[in-house]
Amino acid sequence: MDRARLLVGVAGSAALVAALASPVHASPGTAAAPARPAAPAPSTDPAARIQKDLRMKLGSRFGGAWVPENAKGKVVVATTDASAAGTIRAAGAQPKVVRHSERALGSVQSTLNAHARSAAKTVNAWYVDNETNTVVVQARSVAAAKRFVAASGVDAGAVRIVKTTAKPRPLYDIVGGERYWTTQYGCSVAFSVTNGFITAGHCGDTGETTSGSNQVSQGTFGGSSFPGNDYAWVNTNSQWTPTPKVNRWNGTYESVQGATEAPVGTPVCRSGGTTNSRLWCATIAQRNATVQYQEGTVTGLIRTAICADPGDSGGALITQSGGQAQGITSGGSGSCNNGQGSGDETYFQPVGEVLQILAQQGREIVTEGGNPPGGACDQYQTKVSASLTSGGNQYQPNGNYTTTASGAHRACLDGPAGVDFDLYLQKQNGGAWTTVAQSTSPDPDESINYNGTPGTYRYRVHAYSGSGEYTLGFDRP
Q1: Which of 4, 196, 252, 321 has the greatest CB tally within 10 Å of its CB?
Q2: What phi, psi does 34 have (nearest 5°)?
Q3: How far apart are CA 395 and CA 427, in angstroms?
């Protein structure tokens, strides 16, 4: 087997420069994974129905429609023709006579659009405002707005200039698998986390700045570990929005549902900014693999037979079903240039360790649907919070509790993403403790519902793997 290599984008390679010369742009707005189409708005909505009917009836006399604040659904319809007031009232709306029709104001806006290049940078936006029957021009400089309106040749009487201190800027999504840039390399996003994303440690050192695939300033490496490990996290600025998405490179997105560790043999897929023709999939061949790069040794990696190329570094490894984040692309051998083949081998840093570190900062992986408001265990009578290191045990609450009644013992354990915490309910029997109920899934979260007799009980919280803070909520009879 060829010596494993890092998959970072090295600017000194002519072939790689060519491959990365056309960056994959981050999705503007809030592009989402394909989902069930939203149900159409009910056709019986009174305001929408009235607006549509009267726009058709009044034609060029229609001046717009709106629902005033605190009007309880009462719609106002404007018209340039006072004689149309009866028609408006008969339709169930309140009439208002105005100077400019909807079509006339739309024409003013279209003309401003055509002259947009003449607008100074201090002119923010322009739009039709039905309630004031004008086209509003927002600007940080009133003088600049007046020059823009005059240069466009529109009727100044139809325009209202509003001074503002706002400075609009474009907003961009953070999506797993997509390209970002450092001062030296082109790498890939793994998964979004609160206020940023995780990626490979060899892509950048702490403090190094990043820009998105569109070359817009993005953030700064908040922490980085390589060699030994190969993870890092980037703290992004307010122009970038973390999303629970991984790019499939076919116009759709994989939704991240969690970060539960999958066993060997699980089908997984990789997404990266260089090999952006599709997802590349295989199975987890091994866990806890050690790789020796020229730069040093990295331990605890996931090994797969998935191909990858330079610039895919830092990208996402996710389960083929279930949307569980698994790893961060580190390095390997082989190439996707000729399709995936028998010589391909790629290693991934498991996401658990970096997510545990971020959990101590109050941050977590961004998942579809997010977390329940206020915490997953808030509905229980008693809550305790503490932290565990991998392999450790704690007994809650403060050792044990006693109940004199029979009934249900209900408990909820909420652990950080990327760990495997287990929960046991034990009852004292003489001088010994006996486990009467347990919840030992491979997830960080567990629950117990046990119908017991009077006695002394305790909960054992065990960190099977991983470290971090947890919350235990429970009810007693």
Answers
A1: 196
A2: -60, 130
A3: 12
Residue 447: Cβ-neighbour burial (10 angstroms; 0-12, 13-18, 19+): middle
- Asked whether the beta carbons of 189 and 180 are under 8 A apart, the reply is yes
> Alpha helices, DSSP H only, in 139-289?
142-152
Whole-number Cα distances in Å, 253 to 178, 313, 350, 433, 465: 11, 19, 21, 49, 30
- For the chain, report the end-to-end CA distance as a whole number of angstroms: 61
CATH architecture label of 382-475: Sandwich (2.60)
- Provide the 8-state DSSP code for 277: T
Give the right CATH number for 112-163 from 1.10.1370.40, 3.30.930.10, 3.30.300.50, 3.30.30.10. 3.30.300.50
Q: Which residues are catalytic?
A: 202, 230, 313
CB 186 within 8 A of CB 196: no
pLDDT in tens, 325-365: 999 999 999 899 888 987 899 999 999 999 999 988 889 99
* CB of 356 closer than 8 Å to CB of 418: yes
Q: Pick the closest to residue 302 from 337, 327, 268, 331 (CA basis).
A: 327
Which two structure tokens, joined as six digits, stand for 438? 């347990």
pTM over the 0.70 mark: no
Give the whole-angstrom CA distance, residue 295 versus residue 273.
23
